[in-house]
Amino acid sequence: MPNEWACKEDTMSIRDELNRLDEEMEKALGNLDSLTALEALRVMMLGKKGQLTAMMRMMGQLSAEERPQMGQLINERRERFTRMLDERQQAMQKKERELRLQMERLDVTEPKPLPEIGSVHPNTLVLNEVVDCFTGMGFEVVEGPEVELDHFNFELLNIPKNHPARDAQDTFYIDDNVVLRTHTSPVQARTMTTRKPPIRIICPGRVYRADEVDATHSPVFHQIEGLVIDEGVSMGDLKATLAAFARRLYGSDIHVRFRPSFFPFTEPSAEADLTCVSCRGKGCRICKGTGWIEVLGCGMVNPHVLEMCGIDPKRYSGFAFGIGLERITMLRYGIKDMRLMYEGDLRFLRQFREDVKEG
Ligand code: DAH
Q1: How much is the pLDDT for 10?
Q2: Does residue 185's CB lie within 6 angstroms of at least one atom of ligand 1?
Q3: Same domain, 266 and 235
Q4: Same domain, yes or no, for 239 and 99?
Q5: Assign residue 251 a region: left if phi > 0, alpha if psi is -120 to 50, beta otherwise?
Q6: Distance 112 CA to ligand 1 centre (A)
Q7: Tally of domains within the chain
Q8: Are residues 29 and 131 in the same domain?
Q9: What parts of the chain have a pLDDT lower than 50?
Q10: What's the 89 CA to ligand 1 centre distance in angstroms?
Q11: Within this chain, do residues 52 and 152 fall inside the same structural domain, yes or no?
């Protein structure tokens, strides 16, 4: 430290001190690990309060002959130290820049990982199959609005206001005359009022009911409506059409059976059961041991509905059916809980990358 040698007045001790500074400088330079440390060393040696500056100040104590000699030695240090620090600084800056360039290096020729391709939703996969199946039999796909007039959703389907069948379909009313459609059947009413037979259509789409959410219910789900109107259409045609559909979707060993039922817009009406797709008819937990599973409602279009829609029931007859898309998708892929289909969980959806065709 400057004060240690401040009391030494002879040139020898200044020389010693300079030599010691040389060593200190060498050592400090060797230990430098950052540009900040280098700046600190520069200040310590050459700064206003640095060691060399302090030695300069001590020159006043020397004789007039000694002064220039020592001054030269000190100045020579100042220049040398400055050079050493500058060189070192440049080397460090260069190294730092090289390191940064290396780290920031971009290989523009490097191939990019391919973007992940999404999968088709199981409902869509099954709908595509259903559409394929029916268009193959000469049906046409027709769509209708989800926000529907009471007139089409209920009235033209023989469900007047205060009819008990309205209670079965917990309806979301927009106002007295407008609802969120509770089924896809209004599309048959719309088609019958605007087209002349022969009519062969399927109408897939989203429907709404103020339902609970559980493993088999959702307030938003999908149906596929079917309608055929022509001269001489019979219940046998209905059964054969549904049998073709069942075989196409689930395999050639699947059969259809009808159980009597009631819908205001069909007469007679039936629930159609299919051979249980899980046990193939032997009886299991899914079909509760019966070998049959209920999949859709159907029937012959009620003549009163034909009449209300402007079709002559004496000349024409027709059949209709309504399939719940989620139900047949769940059966197709063995999905146990309907909620899986709406949650968007990738682990579930990724399993449908490829449609697994069975049967
Ligand atoms: N619309 C009925 C429902 O949502 C399903 C249905 C039954 C449609 C029989 C039909 C039919 O076309 O003939 O519950």
Answers
A1: 61
A2: yes
A3: yes
A4: no
A5: left
A6: 51
A7: 2
A8: no
A9: 1-8, 355-359
A10: 85
A11: no
